[in-house]
Design a protein that fits this description.
Oligomer: single chain
Number of strands: 2
CATH class: Mainly Alpha
CATH superfamily: GntR ligand-binding domain-like
CATH topology: Four Helix Bundle (Hemerythrin (Met), subunit A)
CATH architecture: Up-down Bundle
Largest sheet: 2 strands, antiparallel
Helix content: over 70%
Strand content: under 5%
Radius of gyration: 16 Å
Distance between the termini: 26 Å
Shape: globular
Order of helices and strands: EEHHHHHHHH
Length: about 170
């Protein structure tokens, strides 16, 4: 849950239970926002998450696959309800990091949580982005499930490139 909830076709709403730390984190993010911070974040994600996806394809066990799929279904449910699903998308990405069995990868990605949530909210405001991201998430998941390292890395790179294009278009 964030500062606002965006429901496509319905509008923007303030959540009933607003978490104080999100307000403070969002204010801090806005005050420290630099024009290229999104590009910086995407570059970091490209380095981290493409390798994370490949390693997850190599190391994920059946339990990990079920967890990733569960997070993906949670995201799909939000998107189908016309919501942004940013938290669910992040949980999907974190479950992939967890599947690597590398605690450092998971912790690094988790440390970026505030930035990932903020940039996710910005990108999800783009028309059809949640639907496109959902399709890309399925491509990532299928590659990991099939243990196809190269395809998992390519699918993640494609997903992140889509995010980059949104921000370049909106500059």
């Amino acid at each position: 849950m964030g500062l606002v909830e965006i429901k496509r076709g319905s509008g923007v709403f303030i959540p009933k239970e607003l978490q104080p730390e999100l307000v403070l984190n969002s204010i801090d993010f806005a005050l420290n926002f630099k024009e290229n911070i999104i590009e910086d974040l995407i570059e970091v994600r490209e380095i981290l998450e493409t390798k994370i996806a490949g390693l997850a394809a190599k190391k994920a066990d059946p339990k990990d696959i079920l967890e990733i799929e569960e997070k993906l279904k949670n995201y799909e449910e939000k998107v189908n309800q016309g919501e942004e699903g940013v938290n669910e998308s992040l949980e999907f990405h974190l479950s992939i990091a967890r599947a690597t069995k590398n605690v450092i990868f998971f912790r690094l990605l988790n440390q970026l949580k505030v930035l990932l949530l903020q940039s996710g909210r910005l990108s999800s405001m783009s028309k059809d982005r949640p639907v496109i991201a959902l399709k890309q998430h399925y491509e990532i998941f299928e590659a990991i499930k099939r243990k196809n390292i190269k395809k998992a890395e390519e699918a993640m790179a494609n997903h992140l490139e889509g995010i980059r294009k949104i921000f370049k278009t909106n500059q």
